[in-house]
Amino acid sequence: MNENITKRNELLAQKVIKGLESRNMTGYYAASKEEACRLALSLIAEGSSVTMGGAMSAHEIGLVEALKAGNYNFIDRDAYEDKRAAMLAAYDADFFLASANAITEDGVMVNIDGNSNRVSAIAQGPKKVLFIVGMNKVCDDVDGAMKRARNVAAPINAQRFGLSTPCAKTGSCMNCKSPDTICCQFLITRFSRHEGRIHVILVNDNLGF
Ligand code: SF4
Fold first, then answer.
1. Which of 112, 160, 178 has most ligand 1 atoms within 8 Å of its beta carbon, as the pocket-test mutant?
2. How far is the CA of 11 from the centre of ligand 1 (A)?
3. pTM score, two decimals?
4. Which architecture characterizes domain 3-203 according to CATH?
5. For the segment 158-181, what is each residue's pLDDT rounded down to a tens digit?
6. Is residue 89 classed exposed, middle or buried when 0-12, 13-18 and 19+ CB atoms within 10 A define those classes?
7. Which residue's CA is the closest to the ligand 1 atom numbered 8?
8. Is 208 left (phi over 0), alpha (psi -120 to 50) or beta?
């Protein structure tokens, strides 16, 4: 990462972390993907049950591979034939790994979801939620975060999963009601009532979409 971008990201991350703290969530800054992986592993006690909801960023920092190789009970939803059973197991996990479609400079996270298992587990269920968020996801405010979620993250994810949505064809949101829409639920995480439940590692890199 370019030295000037790194300096800017460090400063911006401190602002986001302050915002998260004001919302009863805990933020951290990692200068690299490797540091982010080490930091995440230091937060997850060995023996913990861990699951995730489509968090590319957790893969990109090497966390998923490290958890699978380590002394953890990694709940791999792809290994479940019964998807409902996988979803219920996720709700009872010690840790849920997630990313955010966008995060504001004052610590509000925006996530959109089609199946909605990811946003529901972020909102309630798993004992702790650990977000891995690249600094490319930081937006000025909630309006900017919603625009990023719908015009950057959603079209890429729709293309990635081969969905027939207008954004997959045009590259930007057309506010569709397509049967394939991934915009069924919008979760705005602006405060956590549960002390110590939500942790966010901001990574000095471009992660996810
Ligand atoms: S509402 Fe439809 S077009 Fe807009 S981002 Fe969501 S899936 Fe794409």
1. 178
2. 33
3. 0.95
4. 3-Layer(aba) Sandwich (3.40)
5. 999 999 999 999 999 999 999 999
6. middle
7. 167
8. left
